[in-house]
Amino acid sequence: MSISDYFYRIWAYLKSHLLQLNLFKSGIQDELIIQKERRSTRVYLALLIISIVILVFYYSVTPYTHTVVIKTPTFIKYSTLSKEISLQCSCKTISVKYEQFVQIKPFNHEFCKSDFISDEYIKQLFILYGQSWNNSIPTDFRRIAVFQFQTLRSLCQLTQETIENKLKTFLQTEFVQPQLISQELLQSQIGSLLTDFVDMTTNTFLRTLKFIQDTTAQNLFMTGASLTSIFPTTQSVFNSIPYSGMNYILSDGSSCTCSSSTATSCMSLATFNNDIVHGFQTGCYMLNALLKSTLEVFCNQTFINILTNSSDNFKKLNSSVSNWTIETLLSQMFVTHWSNQTLFEQYFNHCAPESCQYTVTESYDFLFIITILIGLFGGLNSVFKIIAPFIIMKIWPIISKFIARRQTPVTQFVENELNPGKFNSKYINYCFLIKFYFSDICQRSYKRIFSINKKKNDRIKFIQKYSSITR
Question: What is the model's pLDDT at position 468?
Fold first, then answer.
């Protein structure tokens, strides 16, 4: 036996048994009822197979999400997972001081670390002042340098102390966060907080300095060696001459009157041995003049050696921003840049997350789909065993009658059934073609026509040709 014949026999065997399969046996031997039970079985199997196919297809293409929980994860475990997925971790300690995981360090301008604010250099300027104060013009650099550099040293010290105090307060502030945040977000937040801290500290310092400047100018307090101890002239205790302001001679030979309105304009470049000292200002109000000055002349080693009467005892500045004014440097608190290091591991350890969780999207595996189908099979089986007989017994007769009304050949066949004298083979052929859908009609027509037809030869011929419609 060939393989094709073997499979054909198997197919024929299965087909015959499937056609005879009856899952709704009621025990009634009526052929019409048995036939309806077999149809119910076919509808039941069709619905069950279609449902299983749909469920398998749905769970095969539809992803699902589930949450994975990790209890008390270590930093290494968290670091490994956080590179691949987004973790959500709840902190055991929700408030952590910045000092426990943040390191902030300001880098001061090189001038505030140079020899130009040292005691030795200030002492050298005092010597120059003592040698020149009574035989030099008011704009002479040797006459004003010691006071200006003492002021610069005070400003360096004041800014450093202000930054240290503010920074200490900032680091004592607590970072409150109930959830552990990622390393990138933490660094971004700390960077933003540091920017706000620097801006606030600088603005507070400058407002205080501006207040002192305005107070000095409005009250006509004269500072500096050239104008120290200037008092208004009085005639008596009750009768005094109003002070009109000090006349200040500038380096170019011009002059201006010192008053509150000229505090920022009555100034010019200082001189040294009748030469201009580039970038360094002097005027009525020494602090205002100092703020408008630059340190570019102190990048010239020759000038420094002549000024201090020494050879390379005081090194020049190497700053690339030597042409910036003192006011500009002061607006940055004499800090060139800030170092900000956020220690995420320290933050993680202080947060001490009790658990972390993440959501994973996956596809259902074959074993899971089989489990789902087994779980749903009982429900589908019960539902379809109710639906299938209902469709055959109640719904299908209605549908078949509706279709029969719309089919002209079937209508003619039914009419011919009522009048068998007009019977011919054309209508029987229609019945044969639609026997699967309208077998009940065909059977009734067949029986009626067969009982009326009296001729034996016609009956035999009819049975041989159309006997299959009653099966």
Answer: 45
